[in-house]
Write a structure and sequence with these properties.
Shape: globular
Oligomer: single chain
Number of domains: 1
Largest sheet: none
Radius of gyration: 21 Å
Strand content: under 5%
Order of helices and strands: HHHHHHHHHHHHHHHHHHHH
Number of strands: 0
Length: about 375
């Protein structure tokens, strides 16, 4: 009971930090700042009738409209409560935040490891900060929350959670289908019964296909090659006299995202057994936006490639994390969480440069501490064998 109280108090402190240091956009701010995806999302949620809803395919691409289940749900909340649409979206993001905290609270591991996992998934500069700032990105928020639930279910070996959150991910975004190969590998590694494996995978695939089929009926979209472009767009870019500055920006953003997760290195004990499949799961989720390339993914590479972050958090859940390690890790992640567009750093001139400097600084400290721990461990082992 005491450990649970400590976890909930800790989670409230993190939530308070996140909200107090957040920068909130209005709908008009979001559109002006280039978050054009919110326009079709809001149109779906606020469509006055089916004819208006159906006609949206004349103006917006189908890969945005296929996320209709989430926005239709928000629209229902708006109609029932009479809330302003932007406020309704923001409350849904807060609900996802609380759900994420609750899900992490279900982990059966040490209190320190549980808190570290929460810090990692909650304070990433590319996840909940953006969803709070631009809450109409609720489909992204719900997808990320579903991945957290999926990862928790994976650690608990709870097949109901695995299937349920994979289905929820497919309802939130088409990207949910990426969880199928991850689910397949998981079933093979942990020798899940064939019948149960096929049932889970079949349920996820069925949900994905059902949403796509209903989208065709609801919107009657024009023909599009978006599936090809979103999976192999990088090759189209390569064949069309690419501008290499686009590639540098693309890979640079991806590299910066990787730097922001380096603090977790200090929680990995030198010489420990690493479950590499969790790293592979992270890379599988991040492969789609990479393969889509600069033309399709563009500057969104960092926020799209981070969706698999909860899988990396599973690496240290079995570790004996000390209070000192947890404090250092929390401070480092808090520092690097100040994304320049979605935090109070927004009001500082040259905020992007400060963010890059912070990320590099935190990355170097993390690697130095990890290296120091490794050397210390080697010295201890050497003397213990004498």
């Amino acid at each position: 009971m005491k450990a649970n109280r400590q976890y909930w108090l800790f989670s409230l402190i993190l939530l308070g930090f996140l909200l107090l240091s957040a920068h909130f956009y209005t709908y008009q701010d979001a559109v002006t700042k280039g978050f054009s995806d919110v326009v079709p999302y809001v149109k779906m949620a606020t469509a006055p009738d089916f004819i208006s809803f159906h006609a949206l395919s004349n103006d917006f691409p189908i890969h945005h409209l296929e996320r209709w289940p989430v926005h239709l749900f928000v629209g229902t909340i708006i109609n029932i409560t009479g809330l302003d649409f932007w406020m309704a979206y923001r409350l849904c993001v807060l609900a996802c935040l609380l759900l994420a905290i609750f899900l992490v609270g279900q982990l059966q591991c040490s209190a320190a490891a549980k808190k570290a996992f929460l810090v990692l998934v909650l304070l990433s500069p590319y996840t909940f900060r953006q969803y709070l700032a631009v809450p109409a990105m609720i489909s992204d928020c719900l997808f990320y929350t579903a991945v957290i639930g999926f990862a928790v279910g994976m650690y608990k070996r709870n097949l109901v959670m695995l299937a349920g959150f994979a289905v929820l991910a497919c309802l939130a975004r088409q990207t949910g289908i990426i969880l199928v190969p991850i689910l397949l590998v998981y079933c093979l590694i942990y020798r899940v019964e064939l019948k149960k494996s096929l049932l889970m995978i079949g349920l996820v695939v069925l949900t994905f296909l059902l949403v796509k089929e209903l989208s065709q009926i609801l919107f009657m979209p024009k023909s599009t090659n978006y599936v090809f472009m979103h999976t192999l767009g990088i090759f189209v870019w390569l064949m069309n006299e690419p501008h290499w500055l686009e590639w540098i920006d693309f890979i640079g953003r991806y590299g910066l995202m990787l730097i922001t997760i380096l603090p977790m290195m200090i929680l990995l004990r030198p010489g420990q057994v690493v479950h590499w499949w969790y790293v592979i799961f992270f890379l599988i989720v991040g492969a789609q936006p990479l393969l889509a390339g600069p033309l399709v993914t563009g500057s969104n590479i960092d926020r799209l490639a981070i969706y698999g972050l909860p899988f990396l958090g599973l690496l240290f859940l079995g570790e004996a994390i000390t209070s000192k390690q947890l404090r250092v890790f929390t401070v480092l992640v808090m520092l690097v969480s100040f994304q320049p567009q979605f935090s109070l750093l927004q009001f500082v001139d040259g905020s992007r440069y400060y963010f890059v400097a912070l990320a590099v600084f935190v990355g170097l400290i993390s690697l130095t501490l990890w290296r120091s721990n490794r050397i210390s461990n080697q010295i201890k082992n050497r003397y213990s064998h004498r």
